[in-house]
Amino acid sequence: MGKTLAEKIWSEHVVSSTAGEPDLLYIDLHLIHEVTSPQAFDGLRLANRKVRRPDLTIATEDHNVPTLNIDKPIADPVSKLQVDTLRKNCVEFGVRLHSLGDVDQGIVHVVGPQLGITQPGMTIVCGDSHTSTHGAFGALAFGIGTSEVEHVLATQTLPLLRPKTMAINVEGSLKAGVTSKDIILAVIAKIGTGGGQGYILEYRGSAIRELSMEARMTICNMSIEAGARAGLIAPDQTTFDYVKGKPHAPTGAEWDLAVAYWKTLTTDSDAKFDKEVNLNADELAPFVTWGTNPGQGLPLSASVPNPSDFANAEDRGAAERALEYMDLKPGTPLKSIKVDTVFLGSCTNGRIEDLRSAASIIKGKKIASSLRLLVVPGSARVRLQAESEGLDKVFLDAGAEWRSAGCSMCLGMNPDQLKPGERAASTSNRNFEGRQGKGGRTHLVSPLVAAATALKGTLASPADL
Amino acid sequence: MEKFIKHSGSALPLRRSNVDTDQIIPAVYLKRITKSGFEDGLFAAWRNDPSFVLNQPQFKNATILVAGPDFGTGSSREHAVWALQNYGFKVVLSSRFADIFRGNSQKMGLLTVILTQDEIENIWQTIEKSADTQITVDLESKTVSYDGKTLTFTIDDYTRWRLMEGLDDIGLTFTKIDEVSKFEEKRASFKPKTLPIL
Lengths: 465, 198
Description:
Chain A is about 30% helix and about 15% strand.
């Protein structure tokens, strides 16, 4: 029997395998940031260990850094200490670091692909659950905890039990105004936040193949929101074209060798997935979440559900709690919900295509006077690219705020936070209680819906303008 | 890591599903650079509510958390495990755990035990009626006992052995480090390196 893509990459990275034990897997790339690494470096120091492969390791500052006044010292002393600790650790252990102000600084999952160090067939880890983003290149990429960060720093390997595989088949074509964000929100609503637990997801089908690399990254990014540690897409010409010419992409004869190998990275026709889920892209519409987990989503044209409509007692309880937290009444049309803040950014939707698509809706118009629009590019290079295209002016002229790169309001670790009771339409990945600031309420949306919402003041798609 | 063989203690019922790691420890607490002192951030937002179960005096000394399904979803922050341990929890019982949270727990010696939702419901009812019910979680016999009942659970043998011996994964991997070196010799030349900076 053939192998799935995930199984191929897995077996090519097994250093050692013993029956009844986890496989010891080699890690091709380890991405680091300030929040989940300090205790891991401490562990190395305590045990008098070194970083085994600094040349397969790279760090950037993203989670807690400010997006305003980045030329000044970080005002929050606790954030500053954490960033300073990363800087010291990277010097001490010889790890490449892109600090605030550096042209390659940005969200770790935006930086990897743009440097060309994210390539097909690799194993990639980071102390961040959205590492699944890199799966868009046909890499096996997943988030790890700090103990595992220390393990990879010390040994460049990880002991792991082999997950099962699940195919997410998305056939058909997306209608205008429907994006890859809507695909993944629909997938999560369908299989639930626990549906992918224990699985690696492979996104397949004509609708996936038609997507750009950046759109594919948005899908793989949110695999963890369906409970799956990793999600991937078989590499194809779109992938090769994207990687080619990037700073760390292979060149000359090495490029040919690499592409010949990458072309083998597909699921064999006789391979069997442990589970398959089908979705019809033709039927998809812009999606929005109404609750406090990413599985609580519906098409924008729907209304807030009634908890009593849920057959399962757990879902009913969760819906009741969510509606109370979100201050929503059953039956309210989603399009009538007023928002106070629109956040455009994050490792899910903070890349140049996301900014372009939002700008295309906003150009020449003004945002609703009742709200603020925060635009946070995913990396310093995305910001520079956008500025070279004049997108910053489009946003600023519309009344938006144009910020420097970082995770920003996606997780509210830096000063960019919602106030208690404030409601946001956000292109990020999590609508958990308090995620974007204590007491804040989040509706997850695509960049197109974010832009239309910013103009209208209520949740809207471009078609509603 | 401390060995885990058997633990007895009282338990706290957390009747909520999909408790994500942002609820277990909100992001504002993640700026610290140590592994200790996170107990003040545990379920921080919910603890503002006096009726929240962690604020109820009868559950003050609980060392076993009995959680709803899909516990630990979302962010990979190991701080969630540290916060639970710093607060005093030794075991979490649930019908479903998120993969990364479970992995992190097993690295730190916080035992995560999977029971059926019916079994969890029965434990909830028992401890809600009588908060001082002693629950014994025995990793050697793979059982949870309380109130005259004994439930069995499964856990892979390797993880069980590692937890019972209190073994650190890094030390175990160093026993295979020659195999890692051999693997490295065979890696394809086109695989990218982060150094030198290009």
